[in-house]
Amino acid sequence: MRRLCELLSVHYPFIQGGMGNISSPVLASAVSEAGGLGTIGTGTLTVDEVELLLLDMKKRTKKTFALNIPISVTENLKGMCELAVKHAVPVVSLSAGNPAPYIHYFKQNNIKVICVTASVKHAQKAEKAGADLIVGEGFEAAGINSPLELTTMTLIPQLVAKVQIPVVAAGGIGDSKGFAAALALGAEGIQMGTRLIATKESPYHERYVERLLEADDTETVIVGRSVGKVRRILKTAYADRLIQAEGSGIHPDDFEAMTDEEKHRIGAVEGRLEEGFINGGQISGLVKSIPTVQELFKEMMEGAEQIYENQMKTFKRFYLKH
């Protein structure tokens, strides 16, 4: 954990996942102020739109933060990379595409580079290209997912065994138990998205938060397999429409239109759950409270420490008896 915290200049080994077009400087700055790495996601926003978010973010916090750039969906990729340099963004997170062509540009401008991956092969390539940190994202995660469908439990230890740079676990983690489990797998920190939706600093619509709080263990669904666009979302009336459309053999372009970032904004920000979807990871069933980000981080650190102390005592008692 210390290596990760020193690398990112953060107090806690917690990274906020990129939230695309619904990124909010309010929540991201709260994460950074609480000691984690807050993140602004570019999604499909324009360079000008993202610049406004960055300016707002820099007004709200002087602490370290990141800019997540999803390579395959960013229209003006060159302009977005230049924007990160223009505003001296401390950390850039690259996802949804091959990061290799862009890593050197950021590194020569003193920007740390995180690469989000879902396989050992891609993690090794990112490390070879100069990445500072790997986020291994399991299939439990919310939003766009890898078609490989590897789970966090199986992915993280394999990544740790094959790369030398720090590995952060993402997907299905949102409490002290999940954090402790990630550390046991060899991760040096975690990345969270869904859990941060239900915090006091969250700017998202109350219907989104309520839907998350009432969710049980089976309240997320995968859509897009039939068109090669795997995404995990919460069950809603709009999710039912997507499932029905897939069952009827929807064209990939039509599916793309039904699941674009605007449809996500309609659901998450405006709360129109009949007209837009809301992302949700499998952690959804464990989210039952709305703490501040600071309270969440403190509970996760203290809870994980207690778990390890208790488990060590149990292990020693068992070992001595045998």
From TrEMBL:
One of its GO terms (molecular function) is nitronate monooxygenase activity. InterPro entries: Aldolase_TIM, NMO. Keywords: Flavoprotein, FMN, Oxidoreductase. Transmembrane segments: none annotated. The keyword Oxidoreductase applies. SUPFAM superfamilies: Inosine monophosphate dehydrogenase (IMPDH). Nitronate monooxygenase that uses molecular oxygen to catalyze the oxidative denitrification of alkyl nitronates. Acts on propionate 3-nitronate (P3N), the presumed physiological substrate. Probably functions in the detoxification of P3N, a metabolic poison produced by plants and fungi as a defense mechanism. This is Probable nitronate monooxygenase. It comes from Guptibacillus hwajinpoensis.
